[in-house]
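SAMPLE LOG
Freezer: B-3
Tube label: C17
Construct: single chain, 498 aa
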Amino acid sequence: MAKMKADLSIKRNADISRNKTALICMTITTVLLAAAYFLEVLKDARQPGDYVILACTCLVPPVIAWVLYGIKKDNAFIRYVLGLGFLVFYTYLLFTSTSDLAFCYIAIVFIILTVYVDIKLSVIVGVYSFLLNVAVLIKKGVVGGFSQELIANAEIVVAFVIFLCVFGIISISKVAEIGRVTAAKADMQRDQSEKLLKTTLEVANFITEHIQVAAGEAVVLGKAIEATKYAMEDLSGGAGDTAAAIAEQQCSTEEIDGYMKGVGSSTEEIVTEIGNTEESINVADGVMTELLSQVKVSEEKGALVAKEMGELKEYADKMVTIVNLISKVARQTSMLALNASIEAARAGEAGKGFAVVAGEISDLASQTNHATDDINNLIANVGTSLEEALAAVEELLASNQSQNEFVGQTAEHFREIENSTRKISEQVVCLKEAVESATAANSAVVESIQNVSAVTEEVSASAIATLESCDQNQESIQKLAKIMENLREEAIKLQQEG
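STRUCTURE (predicted):
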């Protein structure tokens, strides 16, 4: 695996890299120079003692710099050891070299030292090398004379050194300026990156915490939606059962309505017959002297009254059956209203409207119970009156059979018949009014049942729609939970990388 490169934007890493680069380049240069001048010793162009001094001034500074590098790699003193150490070697070389081109070595070192972008060091090396070359030229002119060749060489050397130093210092200054700007920009970017990283980590922490909370809430919401789904299923089933029961009750109520209409017709016939009976009694009071001749007619009328009384009793029995049926329907309605109230309570907020309808149904059932109680009381009175009327008719028949013996009692019996008939008339009128009230109440029940049936169908449809909505919401919650889990994982990764 390749070794990871150091981040040179960090000052210590940059200083270590500069020292290492300068050390390697300076070591190669000094070793090559030492080797080159050793060849002069072999060619007898330089004395061994002179070479020892030259080699020491050439090789000792890099050795010292390597030792300092081993102690502390980012040691800032290494650059001065290399630069000033080379100047010592360069000074000795210029005063002892027989070549006019030895001054060029300063260019190599000057280029090597630019890696530090140190203007101070560059000025020291440049000024010293310039003064040193001028001194060497003056020494040569004093010793050998200022010839045209020396002056020409001097112009080249001075121009070279000046250009090298000036342009080198200018270039280093510009590089240093660019480096400072770049470093400032890098510092600013690093600060911004740190702030961004800090903000990102804070956001990641915030996201992680709130995603966990949101995940918990999503689980709770999912459970609530599932519970609502089950409640809607129960409500939908209950509404269907209620609709079926209401339809059955509607059929029964319509039958009751038919019975009521029949009872009303019979009651009107009874009223008519009672009127006829009253007229007959009035006639009988005026024709007591003709009683014997009218015995047969009285027997026929008595038989007719007995027949009508029997029919009236049958109608009364039918009314009892009808009232019992109404009571049964009212009880069923009360039970359905109670069940509907329970289902509405289970449904919670969505079942409030249905609870109101169930309450109205319960009130109607209670009113029906009261009405049937009143009808029962009326039927009981009619039954009593019918029994009395039948007894009177029986007495009338017996009286007709023994009229000769009980003529004196006939008038009294007729008066009793008249009183009983008046009571029957009054009771039948009450019965007629009760039947009319029951018919109106039954019509209201039919209308209410129709309304309840329509509302039940709407509730059932709403329950089905709510159930479908619950399914969709549950799917959305599951997708949301999956997305939040992915976000939480990404946030955790971001925290770990931060």
